[in-house]
Amino acid sequence: MIKHVILWKLKEELTAEEKTSVKAGIKEGLENLAGRIPGLLEIKVYTEGLPSSNVDLMLDSSFADEEALKGYAVHPEHVAVADGRVRPYTAVRSCMDFEC
User: Tens of pLDDT along 2-43?
Assistant: First the structure.
């Protein structure tokens, strides 16, 4: 199994209200991919970190294997969410993929 974890920092120019809306949209868009992409076993977005956090969101997802992760990266439904709900609003993206 492959874990795919992403941490995002939203753009500073977003207001608190905009950040709340953007986080909800990212969570909804990504979590709605469950059951729609081959090899995607689990997907969860966390939007409410503790005050000690220095990022705004975390994606925690699991894939059957590396090929499934590669397929997810280019799957049209994932690309639509990434291009429409994530990339326009994020300033920093950190990713770690690992086998477990």
Answer: 999 999 999 999 999 999 999 999 999 999 999 999 999 999
Q: How far apart are CA 88 and CA 49, in angstroms?
A: 21
Residue 26 burial (10 A CB sphere; 0-12, 13-18, 19+): buried
d(CA 100, CA 95): 16
Residue 71: count other Cβ atoms within 10 Å of its Cβ: 17
State pTM to two decimals: 0.95
Please name the amino acid found at residue 31.
Answer: E
Q: Coil, helix or strand for 53?
A: coil
